[in-house]
Amino acid sequence: MSQNPFRALRDYRDLPPAFGTGKMISAALARAPFAMLPLGIMTAFTFSTGDIAVGGLATAFFSIAVATCSPLIGRAADIWGQRRVLLTIMPINAVALLALYWAALNSPSTATIYLICLLAGLTASPIGSFTRARWVAMHPKPRTLMAAFSYESMADEFVFVLGPAFVGIAATAAAPSAPLLIAFIVLVLAGFPFAFTAPTEPLDAVSGDAPGTSRPSIGKILVAVSPAIIALISVGAFFGSSQAAVTVRAEELGSAGSAGLVYAAMGISSALMALLVVVLPDRFKLYARFITFSVAVSALTIITSYAPSLPLTALALFVAGAFVGPTLVTAFTLAEKLTPEGGVAVAMTLMSSSVTVGVSLGAAIGGRVAESSGSHNTFLLSAGVILVAGVIGLILKLKSSTSGRDRVA
Length: 409
Prior knowledge:
With 409 residues, the protein is mainly alpha-helical. It folds into two domains: 165 residues, Growth Hormone, Chain: A (Up-down Bundle), CATH 1.20.1250; 195 residues, MFS general substrate transporter like domains (Growth Hormone, Chain: A), CATH 1.20.1250. The longest helix is centred in the middle third of the chain and has 32 residues. It is globular.
């Protein structure tokens, strides 16, 4: 059955009435601190200590804490409800953000800096994951859920592209520590309103299902959604390594300050195309999307590696980004289909953590390749890591062919 693209786009009209316009706005803005903090921490503590290694380790402590604790926060929300969990961790996180700002101004011992970064990461609120979990619990029509996931991916893309850019502007215009204070302000103005509008009961009760006395373990959920997790780690590694590639390409061409703008070209097209996933026909299966999108991104990234100027680099990345956003949406859609009953919040936080882990791995490996081999080879690395998502697509295709079922493919 063919899908009318204009009718599919009308699915977006169902989102504000179902979720609430104000809630959607606060949910989008409340992600900003999470997007600002990795680069903000790096910038602030590299400047305050004069040691880039301290800034890098501080960022690593924050990112590792986020990736480790997010699934536990998701499990707590599955049991006690999102509002109780958010109103427990958000005040602690607000204190941690103020402590980060104080530390950036006063340069305490490195151990103190790392402990504060750990606290900020352990109490970071997985806003995007909680929002996706609420969409799933509402049991919308499949096309409406696809529209919701597309919208959420678009919001993530814009926030994670504009967040680092805003860090650079604030750090340059005010002070290197300013983004940490701004992150605290945004948390208070957007994060707390999001928390107060969150469900007070577990999502299975909110959705009208009978709350189960037992829930799948985090390990069981992790195994169930592992194909989607691996795909998102691949996408995250692509982000991290391509950031390194763009940074060194800008330095090679004598315009280091333009790196953020060049990279933003990919984020903008990725966000916009994520919204258009709803027009894809149902017969375009998830496994086929993984294969098609990852191969397209890889090929276009290889072309980017040969771009002789920053404008052409930005243009090639803009075209590549058109296939990155749909890959993100496909991964979250796959995770929703694979998640065992009673584990949606854990699954969604695992997915977000996967992106964080992937970005960290990609940035670390990409940084080393960029330092030793330059931008060309770093772009080739990016082209290779995104193909892992295509391998996941091939595995799903083989499983659906051998089992004779097509529930998740």
